Structure formats: C-alpha cells, structure tokens
C-alpha cells in the first residue's frame, strides 16, 4: 500500500511477483530469455519503466530459459546433417560387412566352420557402430533430461560390450576346435587391449556417473578423462578392425589379393567405410559448438547424499 515509484523502495520484491502475474505480451520473453533482466539464480535488476514495458536485451547465445528453469537450446543447423551422414555410413558399413561374409565367406553358422565369421560381424556392430552411436548420444539428444541421456549412453555401451563378447567367444571357440594358436598376431593383441579398456571404461563410468556415490566434485574431475578415453578407445577399435580386415584378406586371398580380386576390392571399400565412419563420429564429437549445453536441472541431479554431506555444491565448483 506504500506509494512509491515502480522499481524503487521496499516494494521492489513485490513488484517482481506482480510482473509475473500481470498479463503482458512481454512476460514470456522476460521469463524465457537469459539476456533479460531476470537471472536464473534470483539476481534481478529493476527496469527503468513500468513492468509492462519490459524489453529483453539482445539474445546471442541461442538458449532460452523456461518458466520451470530448464534450458531449451537450439540445434546447430549443420548438426542433424552430419549425424544423418554418420548413420548412413554406419548402416552401410554393417550391411557391407554382412554382404562380404555372405558372398565370399559362406555366411555365419555357430556350430560349423563358419563360426569364425561371427567375429568380424559382431565386432563391427558392437565396437564400431554401437560404440560410435553411444558417443553421439550427448550431441543428438541435446534437450532431453540429463539422466535419460546418461542411461541411454550407458545402455548402448552395454549392448556393444555384450555383442563384442559374443564375437570374442566365437573366435576363441573356433580356434580351439581347429587347434589354432591364440593371441599371436598384432590384431589379436590390439583386440584384447581394446576390449579390456572398453570394459574398464564402462565400469568406471558406471561407478562415477550412474551408480550413486561419487560426489559432484569427483565427477567433475574425472569427466575430462572419461571423454578422452572414450574417444581414444573408439579410435583404437577402428584401427584394430582395419588390422583384422587386412589379416583376413591375406589369409584368404594370399597372392591373389594383388590381382584385384572382387573380394579384395569389396573388403578395401569396407575398410574405407570404417575410416569414414570413425572420422565422422570424431568430427561431431570435437566440434566445441555442438556440445550439449548445460541445463539448470543437471546441477540438481548431480547432488546426491554424499555430495550434500561433503558440503560440495555445483555453485562452488
């Protein structure tokens, strides 16, 4: 009931509430745009005129806050095209791997000499295609809840790990039946290294980011290492697949490989697809302006019981 000018005196906080309740075409812009006079954490500067005349400041970051405090980021114009291109490469890679095994290697059957052929197909599907897509989850689902995106990321890695394990069992079981030596080639050494690193990476990532217990500060310190090793393991997976493809061609074709046999040409195209898919995924991952923007809810989701007892908070980091 005090008579004071808008935006001054003790009614400042009251006017803040009224400006949200008063029907005005500028309400939504004020509540949604981060460059307006409304701050996410409550810092608010009074406007120079009446609340009905509020104007948002120019917006240049492509992010708007909702009434609930979440963030809705605009998707970069080129990102969907690069993601679609990577998926086209990945699906073509899987299909061509199956075509190579079906046309020139006799297909796949577990209880026969064709059991070995399950190995390259499982590795391409698991450690190349699914692992690459798991890495892209945070670029594709930019505005989904962080918890949902995190679970999807972990599930894709689980599927990739299980399928890769089937591929490992296939090749070891085939060697045992045939009496062949194990783990003597560079491809086999790199393959075991990649699988062990991949399993450890998933296990540590689950412990830090999905299983409750790690504090917010500990997660923040480990996140750069998790991202680096994720990209490195994916790159090693592509390189190991190229080694295995070359090894298979030398064993199966021998001297005929240099005569441009159709199988050799098809396998060479398959190798180029491996390189292109790996390059497309890594390019999308390394574009800084395509990273998933932070959302207000992520800080709340990151605070678990251990974080609170340690006295950490997102705002203190």
Structural write-up:
With 317 residues, the protein is mainly alpha-helical. It has a domain at 96-291: Four Helix Bundle (Hemerythrin (Met), subunit A) (Up-down Bundle). The chain is built from 10 helices and 2 strands; from the N terminus they run H-H-E-E-H-H-H-H-H-H-H-H. The chain has a two-stranded antiparallel ribbon with strand order 1-2. A hairpin with a 5-residue loop joins strand 1 (63-65) and strand 2 (71-73). It is globular, with a radius of gyration of 27 Å. 22% of the residues are buried. The model is unreliable at 9-71 and 301-317 (pLDDT under 50). InterPro entries: CYB561/CYBRD1-like (IPR043205), Cyt_b561/ferric_Rdtase_TM (IPR006593).
Brief characterization of the structure:
With 317 residues, the protein is mostly helical. It has helices at residues 12-21, 27-32, 79-104, 118-140, 146-178, 186-210, 216-253, 262-286, 296-301, 305-310, and strands at residues 63-65, 71-73.
> How far apart, in Å, are the first and last alpha carbons?
42 Å
Number of helices: 10
SSE topology string: HHEEHHHHHHHH
Radius of gyration computed on alpha carbons: 27 Å
The oligomerization state is: single chain
What is the residue-averaged pLDDT? 79
Major sheet description: 2 strands, antiparallel
The fraction of residues in strands falls at under 5%
**Main sheet strand line-up:** 1-2
Helix fraction bin: 55-70%
User: What's the CATH topology name of the domain at 96-291?
Assistant: Four Helix Bundle (Hemerythrin (Met), subunit A)
Overall morphology: globular
How many strands?
2
CATH architecture annotation name of the domain at 96-291 = Up-down Bundle
- Unreliable runs, pLDDT <50, ≥5 residues? 9-71, 301-317
CATH class group of the domain at 96-291:
Mainly Alpha
Structural class: mainly alpha
């Amino acid at each position: 009931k005090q008579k004071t000018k808008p935006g001054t005196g003790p009614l400042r906080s009251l006017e803040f509430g009224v400006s949200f309740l008063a029907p005005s075409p500028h309400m939504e812009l004020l509540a949604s745009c981060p460059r307006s006079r409304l701050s996410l954490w409550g810092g608010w500067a009074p406007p120079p005129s009446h609340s009905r005349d509020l104007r948002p400041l120019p917006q240049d970051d492509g992010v708007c806050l909702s009434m609930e405090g979440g963030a809705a980021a605009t998707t970069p114009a080129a990102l969907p095209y690069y993601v679609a291109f990577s998926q086209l490469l990945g699906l073509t890679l899987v299909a061509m791997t199956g075509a190579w095994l079906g046309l020139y290697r006799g297909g796949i059957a577990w209880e026969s000499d064709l059991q070995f052929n399950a190995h390259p197909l499982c590795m391409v599907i698991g450690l190349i295609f699914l692992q690459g897509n798991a890495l892209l989850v945070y670029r594709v689902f930019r505005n989904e809840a962080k918890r949902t995106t995190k679970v999807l990321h972990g599930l894709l890695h689980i599927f990739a790990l299980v399928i890769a394990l089937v591929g490992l069992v296939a090749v070891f079981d085939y060697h045992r039946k045939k009496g062949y030596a194990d783990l003597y080639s560079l491809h086999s050494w790199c393959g075991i290294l990649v699988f062990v690193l991949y399993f450890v990476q998933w296990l540590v990532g689950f412990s830090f980011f999905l299983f409750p217990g790690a504090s917010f500060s500990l997660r923040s310190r480990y996140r750069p290492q998790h991202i680096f090793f994720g990209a490195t393991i994916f790159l090693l997976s592509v390189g190991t697949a190229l080694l295995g493809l070359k090894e298979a061609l030398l064993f199966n074709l021998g001297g005929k490989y240099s005569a441009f046999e159709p199988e050799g040409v098809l396998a060479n195209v398959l190798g180029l697809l491996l390189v292109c898919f790996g390059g497309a995924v890594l390019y999308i991952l390394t574009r800084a302006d395509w990273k998933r923007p932070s959302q207000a809810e992520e800080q709340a989701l990151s605070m678990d019981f251990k974080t609170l007892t340690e006295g950490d908070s997102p705002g203190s980091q």
